[in-house]
Amino acid sequence: MMNASIRESALAHAKAQYPRESCGLIVVRKGKAFYFECGNLAVGTDQFAIDPKDYARADRRGVIVGVVHSHPNGSPKPSQADLVGCEASQLPWHIVGYPSGQWASITPSGYRAPLVGRQWSHGVLDCYSIIRDWYKETRSIELLDFTRRDEWWLHGEDLYQANYEKAGFVPVDEPPIEGDVLLMQVASPVPNHAAIYLGDGLILHHLQNRLSSRDVYGGYWQKNTTHILRYLGEHGLTSR
Ligand SMILES: [Zn+2]
């Protein structure tokens, strides 16, 4: 579906947005494919989030058949977040390195990011993503997902406290058991981080801008824990 004019338009867009990532969609209308520029709502220069208004506009123009974004470090190599995003979109993704002009394309192929050592990308591979992935992989449970903007906790939002009941969790007043979610408050006015308790004094978690890791649940993490949450299921609350 990529053609020379799409590549040219996308590269020009990458140049215009540099040093931020550009993003757009490939749309087919009346048998012709073209590049549709979208706004990037992500904070920072190493991420993109297509403005949903632009996505809706593209959808009205024709059929969306691909997602395009740029890598301002010059390399089109897909990140883990790109592979995850491609799976979620169920569309081919095309990446252009700027200024190299090199391209890479990926298609959905069942990719899942590793639980330990995954790269950080807000909203795609972050502290709530790893909890959802752990529940999916070890318990076959699909937890609700929530839209979250970068550093929501510094902008008056309190997403973990506002949503844990909806996602099927209740606070408990006893030591954690495997699968419990530990809410933590890390340099924030509200609980903004969460970890899975793995048993044997270990946690699995993904801190902002680090790789996800398995760590000992000791001093610092214990001290900053505000809630121990246990999963009862989305219907657990009503059937108790
Ligand atoms: Zn990327």
Descriptors for this entry?
11 strands, alpha+beta, 240 residues, single chain, binds zinc ion
Q: Into which percentage range does the β-strand content fall?
A: 25-35%
- Sequence of strands across the biggest β-sheet: 6-11-7-8-9-10
Outline: elongated
Helix percentage: 25-40%
Largest sheet: 6 strands, antiparallel
By DSSP (H or I, 4+ residues per run), the number of helices equals 7
Count of distinct strands: 11
Bound molecules: zinc ion
Give the ordered list of helices and strands. HEEHEHEEHHEEEEEHEH
Radius of gyration: 20 Å
Enumerate the spans where pLDDT stays under 50 for 5 or more consecutive residues.
none
* Class by SSE composition: alpha+beta
Average of per-residue pLDDT values:
94
| End-to-end CA span | 53 Å
Sum this structure up briefly.
25% of the residues lie in helices and 25% in strands.
What would you note in describing this structure?
- With 240 residues, the protein is an alpha+beta fold.
- Helices cover 25% and strands 25% of the residues.
- α3 links the parallel β3 and β4 (93-97).
- The longest helix has 14 residues, at 4-17.
- The radius of gyration is 20 Å and the shape is elongated.
- The model has no long low-confidence stretch (mean pLDDT 94).
- It binds zinc ion.
- Zinc ion binds next to β3.
